[in-house]
């Protein structure tokens, strides 16, 4: 992966971060979600594709209750921001398919042999709070707020690797992680990043490839080193506020506190929130910021 792939361009997300840095108000992203218009749109589609579905009234406009299931709509709403109008209906139906009565499920991969699934293994990062409710997933601590998990990549989704699956494969967890990290590194060779500049100086980088593994690239030292080189810095601060976003900026940036605020805001808004924890990468090692360094970032 060469520095040339880091395109110098501004996207909506970059504009939002700049607005936070200079103190401007950021326009609301979720009006139709908060006032119920988006819920009404989804309910209308449900009535068309599943007339028998029982939708229970709910005071919260950001969710729908279907029978005994409550479906949060915030992640779907955020996902649709990047979808053309022509594909909107298809994306909503695809999202609903796994929730609605009568929907067929995907056959679980637990019975597949290890050799068969090895090419599809990837690493992911999940909040440790989330994983307390899912002890069946294979996991190991990564930081104070995040843990490493393992997934089987599929064309439109991925499946988490469970303890039962690893036991059936009869392989060591270290071997699973080594393969998963290697596979993600190979899939990341052509991933681009968006570089914001201040005059002729690199300001910060955003990596949001759309493949759902941007946060997980905290586990790829060579990828992080490409970010560091693109920022022309001896060391960088890195954050993974959502599954689909990795942020980086020079450790000595004069705007580091504002960038840290932006990381927290982006984590809170989602979708697929991960952490606003800050890490430093010096070209060799990745570590969480210490107490003094966090204080310098307003933490």
TrEMBL record:
Pfam family membership, one: DUF1444
UniProt superkingdom: Bacteria
Name recorded for this polypeptide: DUF1444 domain-containing protein
């Amino acid at each position: 992966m060469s520095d040339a792939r880091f395109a110098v361009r501004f996207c909506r997300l970059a504009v939002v971060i700049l607005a936070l840095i200079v103190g401007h108000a950021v326009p609301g992203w979720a009006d139709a979600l908060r006032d119920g218009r988006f819920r009404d749109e989804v309910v209308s589609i449900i009535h068309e594709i599943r007339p028998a579905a029982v939708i229970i009234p709910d005071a919260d406009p950001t969710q729908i209750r279907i029978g005994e299931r409550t479906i949060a709509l915030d992640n779907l709403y955020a996902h649709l921001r990047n979808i053309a109008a022509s594909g909107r209906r298809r994306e909503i139906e695809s999202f609903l398919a796994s929730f609605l009565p009568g929907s067929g499920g995907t056959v679980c991969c637990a019975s597949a042999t290890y050799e068969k699934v090895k090419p599809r293994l990837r690493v992911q990062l999940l909040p440790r709070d989330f994983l307390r409710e899912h002890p069946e997933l294979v996991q190991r601590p990564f930081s104070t707020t995040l843990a490493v998990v393992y997934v089987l990549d599929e064309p439109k989704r991925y499946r988490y690797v469970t303890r039962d699956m690893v036991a059936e494969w009869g392989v060591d967890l270290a071997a699973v992680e080594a393969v998963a990290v290697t596979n993600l590194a190979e899939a990341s060779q052509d991933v681009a990043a968006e570089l914001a500049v201040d005059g002729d100086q690199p300001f910060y980088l955003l990596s949001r490839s759309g493949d759902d593994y941007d946060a997980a690239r905290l586990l790829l030292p060579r990828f992080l080193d490409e970010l560091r080189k693109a920022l022309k810095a001896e060391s960088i601060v890195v954050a993974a506020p959502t599954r689909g976003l990795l942020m980086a900026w020079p450790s000595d940036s004069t705007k580091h506190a504002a960038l840290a605020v932006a990381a927290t805001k982006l984590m809170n808004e989602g979708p697929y929130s991960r952490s606003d924890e800050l890490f430093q990468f010096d070209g060799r090692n990745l570590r969480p910021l210490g107490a003094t360094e966090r204080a310098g970032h307003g933490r």
